[in-house]
Design a protein that fits this description.
Bound molecules: zinc ion
Number of domains: 2
Strand order of the largest sheet: 4-1-2-3-7-6-5-8-9
Oligomer: single chain
Radius of gyration: 23 Å
Strand content: 5-15%
Number of strands: 9
Largest sheet: 9 strands, mixed
């Protein structure tokens, strides 16, 4: 893969020129070849390694390990070694004279900020001088693909964080349009805005809002040590090569705790995980994330919607697919919140069936902090982060930590419970189909009307 990096006033552009056997589109198709990031950093003020790493994080899914990467901006020998050792990529454009980026002596941490609950909770437990960077989607000129996602809530979330006196930089970009199925090419593409500002803002750490379930992959149904996570095993050395320590402050706590942090903290009004809602404070209410947030809100506040309201939400097309998946994504959280609901006297038949599928609630540890995860916070920030976390989530006992490591739902036989759940859903189809059909008919009619007028 050849990467053309073009830093001009107001914009950093990355153009992908696939090499031998590329683009590797086994995972996802490549439909555009240029991505732009709109930044006010003057050309020449970003360390070459930061530019090279940014470009690699845009192109990663389409690079074949066997095919060397060349780049219009050469990187340092240290970066090339780190790319080889971690993700196994061959960077051929190396400037042996180039000094790697040094970690600033008295720097600040940066956060890849999404506006979701986990992201806001992360900001809340980090030092006050933490700076946030948000990657905001913007369609390239002439783009015909439409999206259901709405960026207004995320923009408002950034504005709220700013109102609380925190630094936020919003970088607009069309990088999500490179893929055939739109989205970030790589999990760490969201770090590009931070990388481009790392020199201006003297950053010494790159943080993400990944909770326990994501960091240790419990959401896949079993535990995996963080040493094997992409934060550490694959990319930790690469970020270190550009003077940034990886920092995952909420790695030891579940979504139940991040919801609690957001509920308790002034910054919490900035949090909205739904990416479809029309604005902050107005999630769509129909996606799986919204349905899960209803359960989390119940578990955190102790106030639950009626069984009818809960079931109406979970009957929707996406939420039902979420509960029917095996394992359920973020299953420990679903299991725990459903058991809380039942313990509080809730009488939804559906949620009783979900509890049957997930088994008993062994999950008191979900309200606590898994201490080994603090190793994912750079030493200089660790005490402060730990103190803020422990205010909401006390440390787990050794036995509870062991339960986390032993977590595995793959061995459970739940054929019967799954069948009963499927049966319930078959008898309870989504209720909003009629309303959606009306909405669609109205949009078609409006478009027809517009065409008629524009012709006349
Ligand atoms: Zn939603």
């Amino acid at each position: 893969m050849h990467l053309d990096i073009d830093h001009e006033p107001g914009r950093v552009g990355v153009t992908l020129r696939p090499g031998e056997g590329e683009p590797d589109s086994r995972k996802v198709g490549l439909v555009r070849h240029t991505a732009s990031f709109f930044v006010e950093i003057p050309p020449g003020d970003v360390h070459p390694d930061l530019l090279v790493l940014s470009a690699v994080l845009c192109a990663r899914p389409w690079i074949r390990r066997r095919t060397p990467i060349t780049c219009s901006v050469p990187g340092s020998a240290l970066l090339a070694r780190a790319l080889r050792g971690g993700p196994g990529l061959r960077l051929d454009s190396v400037d042996p004279q180039l000094e790697p980026r040094a970690r600033p002596a008295s720097g600040s941490p940066g956060l890849c900020f999404s506006g979701g609950t986990d992201s806001v909770a992360t900001l809340a437990v980090m030092p006050d001088r933490t700076r946030s960077y948000h990657l905001l989607r913007r369609a390239p000129a002439g783009e015909r693909r439409a999206t259901m996602l709405n960026t207004r809530a995320a923009r408002q979330s950034c504005a709220v964080v700013r109102r609380h006196g925190r630094q936020v930089d919003v970088v607009t970009s069309d990088v999500e349009y490179l893929r055939e199925v739109m989205g970030f090419p790589h999990d760490f593409t969201t770090a590009v805005p931070l990388l481009l500002h790392a020199d201006r803002d003297q950053l010494d750490a790159v943080a993400w809002g990944a909770p326990l379930e994501a960091t240790y992959r419990l959401q896949r149904g079993y535990y995996r040590d963080f040493a094997d996570s992409p934060f550490v095993g694959e990319w930790g050395g690469v970020f270190a090569a550009v003077g940034l320590d990886v920092c995952v402050p909420v790695a030891g706590v579940s979504e139940v705790v991040t919801s609690r942090i957001v509920h308790a903290h002034a910054l919490g009004e900035a949090a909205q995980s739904c990416v479809r809602g029309r604005r902050l404070g107005r999630p769509c209410g129909r996606c799986a994330k919204c349905a899960r947030k209803t359960l989390l809100a119940g578990a955190v506040t102790g106030r639950w919607p009626t069984a009818e309201a809960l079931e109406r939400q979970w009957r929707g097309e996406e939420p039902r697919a979420h509960l029917l998946a095996d394992p359920i994504k973020v299953e420990p959280v679903v299991a725990h919140t459903v058991h809380r609901y039942l313990a509080a006297g809730g009488d939804s038949t559906l949620l009783r069936l979900v509890a049957e599928k997930t088994g008993p609630d062994p999950l008191e540890w979900l309200e606590r902090s898994y201490e080994p995860a603090l190793e994912l916070v750079p030493e200089g920030y660790r005490d402060e982060v730990a103190a803020r976390l422990h205010r909401i989530a006390p440390p787990m006992t050794r036995a509870q930590e062991q339960t986390v490591r032993a977590y595995d739902v793959r061995a459970l036989d739940r054929t019967r419970a799954q069948a009963r759940l499927e049966e319930w859903f078959a008898g309870h189809p989504p209720q909003d189909l009629a309303r959606r059909a009306v909405g669609r008919a109205r949009r078609v009619a409006r478009a027809r009307l517009r065409r008629t007028f524009s012709r006349g």
